[in-house]
UniProtKB/TrEMBL annotation:
One of its GO terms (molecular function) is 5-methyltetrahydropteroyltriglutamate-homocysteine S-methyltransferase activity. It comes from Nocardia macrotermitis. GO terms for biological process: methionine biosynthetic process. This is Cobalamin-independent methionine synthase MetE C-terminal/archaeal domain-containing protein. Residues 15-335 form the Cobalamin-independent methionine synthase MetE C-terminal/archaeal domain. InterPro entries: Met_Synth_C/arc, UROD/MetE-like_sf. It comes from the Bacteria. It holds the Pfam family Meth_synt_2.
């Protein structure tokens, strides 16, 4: 896919959400997401339903020829399929059925609109998924390669099914909340004597890019880490990088500027995942993004051309009333950015 085609799918001035949503009703969730996020809706995740519906279980359900189950600590690769794996795949099918129903209900079927699907990226998946021995997959480089190949194939099949059922263009989001810990070597092992080594950046980048380049269409890599690995992600093949804007420090500004310099889009998490103590307006939430591009000196048209607006992270643990308000605020902020960001003023 050319850079121009990627930009058409990831054009700025658009609101979307990270993935997870509160509650357990897939039809209600799909209807809300499709209705509120008219330009970039997504296949919703509902972790509130329990095992198999969280981000790791959802992604494990996409793996090809890699059965899994649960252990006392996490999900674990196994020799044969399990009831947990069947449950996770059933959740995925139910959610896709609900999205298709909502998509058709808004007249979007066959419209060629863009929809987003999410999966955990290979670094986080290898960090959180266990081998049969109980060690993290990340501790076995051969297993990491196998996992990455299986993940890329599974996402490709999944995206093709979504595109076929909805008559839509599909973009992929890879969630990498553990990427910083993988690079820093801060993940705990099975005991105090069993450490998990830090993965060198070139090795980690090879693993990540194997999936990014192995799936169709442009990819957004999103991280909710307190210290997002922006310099590392700049070197990836991702078309867009997403992060919580509230985590950004002055030292990160050069990295953000370089992300833009190399042609990447930004998905800025400017909407808090929990309701603020006092009511907020889109203007208050938009201000940090405006001040960011002003400090970078890249021009406010960047907000219209290169920036997507999102909540800071997933909304699964958010009250439903605020989750809906968060989407509304994201949409309103994105609309203002797309129309006339130059006119915005702040005291």
């Amino acid at each position: 896919m050319s850079a121009e085609q990627a930009e058409q799918l990831w054009r700025g001035g658009v609101a979307t959400a990270v993935g997870s949503w509160p509650g357990t009703d897939p039809r209600e969730a799909a209807a809300t997401i499709v209705g509120e996020l008219g330009e970039l809706a997504h296949l919703v995740e509902l972790p509130g339903r329990g095992t198999g519906s969280d981000m790791i279980g959802r992604t494990a359900a996409l793996l090809v020829d890699m059965p899994f189950d649960v252990s006392t600590r996490a999900y674990r690769l196994t020799a044969r399929p399990s009831a947990v794996a069947r449950r996770a795949r059933d959740f995925l099918r139910t959610d896709l059925d609900a999205l298709e129903e909502a998509w058709e209900g808004t007249g979007s079927a066959g419209s060629g609109r863009t929809v987003k699907v999410q999966a955990v990226g290979p670094l986080t998946l290898a960090a959180q998924l266990e081998l049969t021995s109980g060690h993290r997959v990340l501790t076995d480089s051969g297993a990491v390669r196998d996992l990455s190949a299986s993940l890329a194939e599974g996402i490709t099949r999944h995206a093709a099914e979504v595109a076929s059922r909805l008559g839509a263009k599909v973009v992929v989001q890879l969630d990498e909340p553990s990427s910083s810990a993988v690079l820093e070597g801060s993940l705990p092992g099975t005991s105090v004597l069993d450490s998990v080594r830090a993965v060198p950046a070139p090795e980690a980048l090879f693993v990540l890019d194997a999936v990014i380049t192995g799936v169709p269409g442009p990819v957004l890599v999103h991280t909710c880490a307190d210290r997002p690995a922006l310099e590392f992600l700049r070197g990836s093949a991702a078309a867009a990088i997403g992060f919580d804007l509230a985590t950004i420090r002055t030292a990160d500004l050069d990295d953000i500027g370089e992300l833009l310099e190399v042609g990447k889009q930004l998905a800025l998490g400017v909407i808090p995942v929990q309701s603020p103590a006092t009511p907020v307006t889109w203007r208050e939430l938009a201000e940090p993004a405006v001040r960011l591009v002003d400090r970078l000196g890249v021009g406010r048209r960047t907000l219209a051309d290169r920036v997507l607006i999102t909540p800071a992270c997933g909304l699964a643990n958010t009250p439903l009333t605020w989750a809906r308000r968060a989407l509304s605020l994201a949409t309103e902020t994105a609309r203002v950015f797309s129309e006339d960001p130059e006119s915005l003023t702040f005291e």
